[in-house]
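Lab meeting minutes (informal)
Scribe: AK
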Amino acid sequence: MVGVEITSDEAGVLYDDRSAHVHGGGSNYTEASDEAMERYNRFETVLRCALLRAGTDAAFCKQFSDDGIIVSTFG
């Protein structure tokens, strides 16, 4: 959808990494392995591409307008 190929499994790992980091007890990116940093960089690339498209494509942006639409689109 944003020009970055990512599998469902990768998305799940990225989400788990992000959640663990944000809520504590997860990855410490100041001392992260090369593999963890590569995952983080891919996640950041996906987010940047999604934000760019959301800012320039109203139909794409609408897919994030509420939780129900997000779940029906991506869940």
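Next up, CB showed the second protein from the same session:
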Amino acid sequence: MLTDPPADVASNPARAIKGRGAHSNPQNRFHQQRSVSTSAEWFENLVQVSPATELIADHAKTIISTNKSPDIPFTQSINPYKGCEHGCVYCYARPTHEYLELSPGLDFETKIFYKPGAASLLRKAFEAPSYQCSPIMLGANTDPYQPAEKKLKITRHILEVCLEHQHPVSIITKGSLVLRDLDLLSELATLNLSKVVVSLTTLSNDTKAKLEPRTASPTARLRVIRETGEAGVPVNVMLAPMIPFVNDHELEELVSQCAEHSIMAISYILLRLPLGVAALFRAWLQEHYPLRAERVMNTIQASRGGKDYKAGFGTRMRGEGVFADLLSQRFRVACKRHGLSTGRGAELSCQHFRSAANAQQELF
């Protein structure tokens, strides 16, 4: 049975695949060989079938990742999953699948690696005498509440360990499944140990279905914001990504909708297109917005120093140039009108952490 198309066919499918963000499975940038087909007609119907999601156990030896980036508001993070079934076509994490000998396209959203030993690894890390407490972010690369979490509960088990050790933890998500864990998050919040960041992209179901097909609906995400706040858990909102002439016109209304709920702070990020994500996004534009595709990409490049992406600290989240400056001004004015705080919000506490040393002292 034929399962894999020739490389050029996979890179240039005729149409979108229902329920998937990427339209193709472009070759891994680390692969030296390239295939070329003289005709793609025979494959035209086959590529319309949505590939099934495959869950693959990842028996990692460590669980906490660290970074020293000056424009990321955390130094420690945990990703319970590699790959993300949410299928956001713009996801900056897509190229990480290439380190697994896979494609940043459909592979990223259909071949999902999960870490069954995550909770045990985290407990071991917390109990190490050398461990220094610092807030942990869940979901820095891929969503900790993507569909697989409903069955696997890896994120929930991680939160249980955080509660056990009274360790501060933040979550960023587009999924409504986070409401399942409000019991843990609200208990952590009583000691200023938890925060939820909801990523909100659009208020249009149609745009959401095209852009991030398997995420929670806009209405569901607004409900997450409301119910999480009502449970006593601090909530931040991140409007991300803002895409020129696709969803940037919604900026003021997005801010207005968020202002109806008790949120701690709000921020935004301009679309980022690192490495192979740019080609996937261009294909997506041609499929869904062919008449404005050139205008969108021209504006993105004008905001990124003439390139699809420019990864400099200080500007990679906001961009530069006329459009980026105008977007920043619009955001500030909208937040001021509604009395919303911008930025990262309050810091979580590390003073309650139950370290190995604390446990030893309690014995005596």
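CB comment: The radius of gyration is 21 Å.
No objections, moving on.
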